[in-house]
Write a structure and sequence with these properties.
The structure holds two protein chains of two kinds.
Chain A: H1 13-28, E1 34-38, E2 44-47, H2 49-55, H3 59-63, H4 76-84, E3 90-99, E4 105-117, E5 120-129, H5 131-153, E6 157-162, E7 167-170, H6 172-177, H7 182-185, H8 190-193, H9 201-212, E8 216-223, E9 229-239, E10 242-249, H10 251-312, H11 320-351, E11 356-360, H12 361-371, H13 373-376, E12 380-385, E13 390-394, H14 395-412, E14 418-427, E15 431-438, H15 470-480, E16 484-489, E17 495-502, H16 507-512
Parallel strand pairs in A: 12-14
Antiparallel strand pairs in A: 1-2, 1-5, 3-4, 4-5, 6-7, 6-10, 8-9, 9-10, 11-13, 14-15, 15-17, 16-17
Helix pairs in contact in A: 10-11, 11-15, 12-14, 14-15
Chain B: E1 7-10, H1 14-25, E2 33-36, H2 39-47, E3 62-65, H3 74-83, E4 92-96, H4 101-110, E5 114-117, H5 122-139
Helix pairs in contact in B: 1-5, 2-3
Classes of the chains: A alpha+beta, B alpha/beta.
């Protein structure tokens, strides 16, 4: 029965009983859970309806339990300590954890009062369930903690400067950027911390942001009091307290950028120097070729000329052997003249610029076949010219390619009664390939790598004349067009020489089809 | 036989001079040739200076000009001829070992009348030189003022 200890008076007994009834109702129908427990045995002596509803125990169950039974086991020592340490009748004993019959954990605020109940020393307890409030509070607290810790540990520096330019908040990174401890910054003004900062460009922008409330983004080189320097990207954002500054240390990036720039400049310088060197070498090479062209040919002409004059000189009679020697001398001079000419072509193909245009390979091949008429005299040559594309390339150089390939085909089919020479092509997405195939003497595949080398020959001059420069020139020209050259063949079974030109040289027809 | 006109052969190499004269002799042109051994002599000849001061009036029917020569080279001689209004009408034929594109291009830019590369093979050489001699010395009608055979 919740009531202060009363001194009943006979006179007011009847009305007192009425009041007791009212208190009973107040207890029983109170929306907050209430109970009375025995201060010595901690047994429940009475519980109200709200307690039954909140905790899930029946009234009878409650009355067979003690108040320890609605606590998690680990809280019981604290409960007992609290109970024994009771000093006043009325007590707000704070927030406790209770467990319902279903096992749900409740956080409750407990208010209790001592009373005598049915002759026993007891306490009346009022329970306020604050589980939900506590949870909300915890969430707010956790969130604040989380934001704070996120800010604190961000890689970027965060600081809040108030309207007096005082550091209000500084995170770890900002302190690091400022080369100061947080404690040295917070509470002090920027001017105190960095004397002279008012004169800097950065401060000028900060002041604008502070006064005009406009955000600003900048890269700033900051000079520290010790004279060292660092680059920072600063984002200034007006906030109610003043200005929020987000700072990233971009010193490393700036240094790298500078290094990269220096490196690039160095590289450009190097390229320039090399180009000059290359041009010089090219010039020397040109002078050399010029010399070869002019000066080496003259003595050959003289050998050839005077041998001839000697032969015709009527004061001398030459026997068979002497005439043969003369022939050899004259032949050698002509051979060397050819070598010089071929070498000059080879070197010209290597050093002159490509003059690119649309070249109709079909037309070019027909033209070259006509030019080689001398080599086809008194011979039976069957030309099979397939479809040939229009390509992008240097016409004069590609002409040299066909003069060499077709000339070779004619030369090495000489022993055949009927020379069959096929010129064909095929295209795919990346390249156009063309080939010259003959039924001539062929070659041994084990020498296929030698074929395209300068001065490399697979036949003696007696068998087939030549200087060994033609295919080297072909390879050089095709490779200057970005293409490849290769050969297939077998001894006495003919040969096939292939050239491929990459997409950019393979002309319009490739794109069209 | 038609009238023969003087031919100026500008050539520094005596062997080449001899071979050229031999080739021209095939058509009996050799006696009509004056030889200058370098560009300087050629210009002296054309301007009648130095040892040619006493040379009679009139320009040669054709100048056969080598390119690479000591002192003054053939390109300079060609340029001088083609830029002088009194000489510019003289036909000039380059007779050279060089078939370098840049020489060809430069000679034609300067206004050369023909460009012949001396063949290494002697028979071809004789053929080429005598054709040049015949054409420019006999067939071609030179501009007025050329030295005629007396």
């Amino acid at each position: 029965m919740p009531s202060r200890k009363t001194t009943p008076s006979t006179r007011r007994k009847a009305s007192a009983r009425g009041i007791t009834e009212q208190y009973k109702i107040l207890f029983e129908s109170n929306p907050l859970p209430m109970w009375v427990y025995d201060a010595e045995t901690y047994r429940f002596l009475a519980v109200n309806r709200a307690a039954v509803e909140k905790y899930g125990y029946t009234r009878d169950e409650f009355l067979s339990m003690t108040i320890k039974d609605i606590r998690p086991a680990e809280d019981i020592p604290r409960l007992l300590a609290n109970l024994s340490d009771r000093r006043s009748d009325f007590e707000q004993s704070g927030v406790w954890r209770h467990v319902t019959k279903a096992g749900e954990m409740l956080e409750v605020e407990i208010v209790s009062h001592a009373l005598e109940f049915e002759g026993r020393r007891s306490r009346l307890v009022l329970v306020n369930d604050v589980t939900r409030r506590r949870k909300a509070e915890q969430e707010v607290h956790d969130a604040a903690q989380r934001y704070r810790s996120t800010l604190d540990h961000m890689l970027e520096g965060c600081q809040i400067i108030d309207r007096e330019y005082r550091y209000v908040y500084v995170n770890d990174a900002a302190a690091r950027h400022g080369r100061s401890a947080k404690e040295d910054l917070v509470g002090r003004t920027m001017m105190e911390k960095y004397p002279g900062i008012e004169g800097t460009e950065m401060f000028h922008h900060l002041r604008r942001c502070m006064e005009e409330r406009v955000p600003h983004l900048m890269e700033n080189e900051f000079t520290f009091p010790d004279g060292s320097k660092g680059w920072f990207q600063l984002s200034m954002e007006p906030v109610p307290e003043g200005v929020f500054i987000l700072s990233s240390d971009i010193t490393k990036e700036k240094r790298q950028e500078e290094e990269l720039r220096a490196y690039r400049e160095q590289l450009e310088e190097l390229v320039k120097r090399r180009t000059v060197q290359l041009e010089e070498v090219n010039k020397e090479l040109e002078a050399f070729s010029y010399s070869v062209s002019h000066d080496l040919r003259a003595p050959l002409r003289h050998i050839s000329g005077f041998v001839e004059l000697l032969r015709k000189h009527n004061q001398i009679t030459l026997d068979e052997t002497a005439r043969r020697y003369m022939d050899i001398i004259a032949g050698a001079a002509v051979q060397m003249g050819q070598l010089i000419d071929d070498l000059l072509v080879f070197s010209r193909m290597s050093r002159t610029n490509l003059m690119e245009s649309q070249v109709d390979l079909g037309g070019l091949v027909r033209e070259v076949i006509q030019d080689l008429a001398g080599e086809q005299k008194d011979r039976n040559v069957e030309w099979n010219v397939g479809e040939l594309p229009v390509v992008n390339g240097d016409r004069a150089m590609l002409r040299v390619v066909f003069v060499n390939l077709l000339g070779n085909a004619l030369k090495y089919t000489r022993p055949r009664d009927v020379a069959v020479i096929e010129i064909g092509s095929k295209k795919d997405d990346s390249a156009v390939t063309f080939w010259v195939k003959d039924n001539g003497v062929g070659f041994d595949m084990k020498y296929k790598d030698k074929l395209f080398g300068v001065f490399q020959r697979l036949h003696s001059v007696e068998e087939f004349e030549g200087t060994g420069i033609g295919l080297a020139t072909v390879r050089r020209i095709i490779s200057r067009h970005g293409g490849k050259t290769w050969a297939e063949g077998a001894v006495n079974e003919g040969a096939m020489f292939c050239c491929s030109l990459p997409g950019e040289h393979s002309g319009q027809t490739l794109k069209g089809n | 036989m038609a009238d023969l006109k003087r031919i100026l052969l500008v050539e520094d190499n005596p062997a080449d001079v001899e071979l050229t004269l031999t080739a021209l002799a095939e058509h009996n042109l050799a006696n009509e040739v004056d030889v200058a051994n370098d560009g300087e002599q050629a210009l002296d000849y054309l301007y009648r200076r130095g040892k040619y001061a006493m040379r009679g009036n009139g320009n040669p029917a054709v100048v056969l000009l080598d390119i690479k020569m000591p002192k003054v080279d053939g390109l300079t001689v060609l340029r001088t001829i083609k830029q002088d209004k009194d000489l510019m009408t003289i036909p000039v034929v380059m007779l050279t070992s060089s078939r370098e594109d840049r020489d060809l291009a430069e000679c034609y830019n300067l206004g050369v009348n023909a460009y012949v590369v001396k063949p290494v093979n002697f028979e071809e050489f004789v053929g080429a030189v005598s054709k040049v001699g015949l054409f420019w010395g006999v067939l071609n009608e030179p501009p007025p003022g050329s030295v005629k055979r007396r």
